Predict the structure of N-acetyltransferase domain-containing protein.
Amino acid sequence: MKLTRVHSPRTKTFSKVWYIFRTSFWPDERRTRRQESKLLANSHYRLWAVWDQKELVGTVTIWDLKKWYFVEHLAVKRSRRDRGYGSKIMRRVMARTNKPWVLEVGRSRDLNNKRRIEFYRRLGFKVNRHTYVQPPYDKTKKFLKLYLMTYPKKITTGRYIRLNRRIKSIVYQDVLHAEK
């Protein structure tokens, strides 16, 4: 398995990655293609294509928050799901650093959210039950009530407040300041 960074929206790889995004996440859970394209120039943001041999099997987007890494999206191509790719991808990216990790998961008790939470728990992530709301990616989308999961351990309320502020100021800066 190999990870390659996507630098330009004008490549076949970006188009293939976008297809995986579009078929893996509801519109409220992702940016538009245009928004995603613009992020490629952001120094905090990394879009990775994941290959098995010569086949694109998944993608992961990671933000460098200075003291933390934030996984915004992890997606595996539909025809390759339930084959261990997701955990292999996460183990590969997590092995590159000693920084702690943070990500968002749904709070509802539907089967997909339960599966996601259990998936990340198996990787060592902990659920933090602080009130967390993801801002909408644009005017047509909704606020999402989520949990933050952190690795390697849970966070205190004070750390949550600082981390939440950092996530909003870096990851969601484009959507929070879009109307200004």
Remarks:
- The mean pLDDT is 94.
